[in-house]
Design a protein that fits this description.
This protein is an alpha+beta fold and 136 residues long. The protein is built from seven helices and four strands; from the N terminus they run E-H-H-E-H-H-E-H-H-E-H. It starts with a strand and ends with a helix. It binds cytidine-5'-diphosphate and magnesium ion.
């Protein structure tokens, strides 16, 4: 059954800063993702707070929003069969220490907060997150 989906991926400040953008993009392409939208941006603290609003009540919310707005990020719309889940698998666990061999977070993640990439966790959130960054 054909289920081509779109999902939102963000290369976070720690990875953009280390010039890993092209390397990470090539991993997505090698794994069959098509990059159908992309841009390098820097967001404000307020925008980061809006983007991560689901985590509002978490103890790490403040640090997370400061971090995501601390430097340039690279946002992408990825497309592939079952893209949402496929991207989550390719990213690996939230904490790079728990991420499996061959995942992006295992390879590049520095810590649970500086874990190099974001990926939408459901098709519904993927739509919201794509709209957040790509509806002008
Ligand atoms: O990014 P992912 O969906 O895997 O994890 P999340 O639970 O949605 O959390 C969002 C982000 O918050 C993570 O990617 C981490 O960067 C950060 N986080 C953190 O700093 N400390 C935690 N204990 C949990 C998450
Ligand atoms: Mg999440």
């Amino acid at each position: 059954m054909n289920n081509i989906q779109k999902t939102l991926s963000i290369i976070k400040p720690d990875a953009v800063e280390r010039n890993l953008t092209e390397e990470i993009k090539s991993i997505f392409k090698k794994n069959g993702f098509e990059i159908i939208g992309e841009k390098k941006i820097k967001i404000s603290k307020e925008e980061a707070e809006k983007f991560y609003i689901v985590h509002q009540s978490k103890p790490f919310y403040e640090d997370l929003c400061n971090y995501l707005s601390s430097g340039p990020i690279f946002v992408m719309i990825l497309s592939k069969e079952n893209a949402v889940l496929a991207n989550r698998k390719l990213m690996g666990a939230t904490n790079p220490e728990d991420a499996k061999e061959g995942t992006i977070r295992k390879k590049y993640g520095l810590s649970i907060d500086k874990n190099s990439v974001h990926g939408s966790d459901s098709e519904e959130n993927a739509k919201k997150e794509i709209d957040f960054f790509f509806s002008s």
